[in-house]
Amino acid sequence: MSGAHWPMADKKILIVGAGLGGLAAAACLLKAGFDVEVYEQAPMLAEVGAGIQMSANPMHVLRHLGLEDDVLRLGVQPGAYVFRLHDTGEVIQDFPLAAEHQRQHGAPYVQLHRADLHELLATAASKLKPDLIRLNQRATGFTETDDGVTLHFADGSSAEGDILVGADGLKSTIARQIVGEIPASYTGDGAWRITVPIERLPKPFLPQVMSVFMGPGGHAVCYYLRGGALLNFVGIIETELASEESWTQKFPWDMLKKDYEGWHPAIQTIIDAADHDQCYRWSLHNRPPVRNWSTKRATILGDAAHATLPYLAQGAAMAIEDGAVLARALRQKDDIAEALDLYQRNRVDRTARIVETSTQNRRLFHLPSEAAIRAEFSKRNEGESRNRWLYSYNPLTVELT
Ligand code: FAD
């Protein structure tokens, strides 16, 4: 896009963090005509071996960035979202995805490997600016004046720009400076994560749908990745044993097996087929939504702004939406503070609603008895509700007010 004749064409934007949110924002901002630099603390770009779901709302952005074909090639479009009982597997409620999701929202619902999505975004953003990503740069804070913003790094160096975006995740340094300490409290849930190659599973096995098995004190989510070659299992279990919020923390396979004792045979098969030394468990924490994301020149996005529990599968989706809306807001205004305000104003309510709905889903997915599950689902229609407000949002076209 030619940037010659719009007010903020010459602005340089510094982004902290090359996660899914930072990279999507970088690509959206470069495509909108801004100059961007991304600073990442890690010595190399990497993502963990787990699945991620992209519904139509972020898929509009991935299409805008030219990634839809690759996402479809590397992912799986599940036929439906299916809620089942944890032991018998009886289907309690379901709603269609695949063609119906596409028909309703104009973009697909895709499940893919996080590492694949991360690499696609990094490649797309780096194509727009080859020296975009600076590794080994841990940001420690920023200073801003009327003339610009300076980002400071742990090695004593610094970078100058006009606008700063903190996309530095759950434990964001930039958010801490803008918002103050955001208190995190342990939810009481640990999230097991394993992936299993399908050659290790019997045929036929679980259908290519998004399966949620719901039981007392826990639930389990199963879906396929990489064209169906890999099965992704996320097992959420209530436990007093709070550990680190970390994707790389391994736990003994025996504990996983014990946590899912008595669950459906498909769950047993998946756990039995897992590599015993590759069982990861993440401790889930609650952080209240915050509403003051910005200073005159700095703002935050993704988990830094609205960390969420994964019970609606929308954390990365929100981060990707943020980048698209931020790029539009900065194109729409001729003043940085006004543009950041427009961005924040148009994002806080939606993201707070997603965070709160996700938190409420913990109760829904962990009801104490089969009778309670049946009673609760008889009063609600998850598909109708999500289609109405969650998946129908298009960050590229929603009116910014
Ligand atoms: P991150 O991915 O955490 O990236 C932050 C980056 O900033 C990292 O690269 C980090 O190294 C870097 N960084 C941090 N501090 C600094 C610093 N000081 N200086 C420089 N760099 C720094 N979301 C979905 O949309 N769909 C799903 O299906 C889904 N499933 C999930 C399942 C589970 C079990 C969990 C726990 C989460 C799930 N999520 C899902 C949520 C999603 O993973 C996150 O919301 C998303 O990854 C957030 O992206 P981000 O870019 O904001 O943060």
Task: Compose a concise summary of this entry.
Helices cover 36% and strands 24% of the residues.
**Percent of residues in β-strands:** 15-25%
Poorly predicted runs are none
- Strand tally is 17
Query: What global shape is seen?
Result: globular
> How are helices and strands ordered from N to C?
EHEEHHEEHEHEEEEEHEEEEHHEEHHHHH
Q: Radius of gyration, rounded?
A: 21 Å
Secondary structure category? alpha/beta
N-to-C terminal Cα separation, in Å?
24 Å
- Could you tell me which ligands this complex binds, including any ions or cofactors? flavin-adenine dinucleotide
Give the biggest sheet.
7 strands, mixed
How would you state the average pLDDT, rounded? 95
Strand arrangement across the biggest beta sheet: 5-4-13-14-15-12-16
Number of helical segments with 4 or more residues = 13
The share of residues in helices is 25-40%
Task: Please characterize this protein's 3D structure.
The chain is an alpha/beta fold. The model has no long low-confidence stretch (mean pLDDT 95). The longest helix has 30 residues. The two termini are 24 Å apart. 36% of the residues lie in helices and 24% in strands. A 7-stranded mixed beta sheet has the order 5-4-13-14-15-12-16, with helices on both faces. A 5-stranded parallel beta sheet has the order 7-2-1-11-17. The protein has a 3-stranded antiparallel beta sheet with strand order 8-9-10. Strand 4 and strand 5 form a beta hairpin. Flavin-adenine dinucleotide binds next to helix 1, strand 3, helix 9 and helix 10.
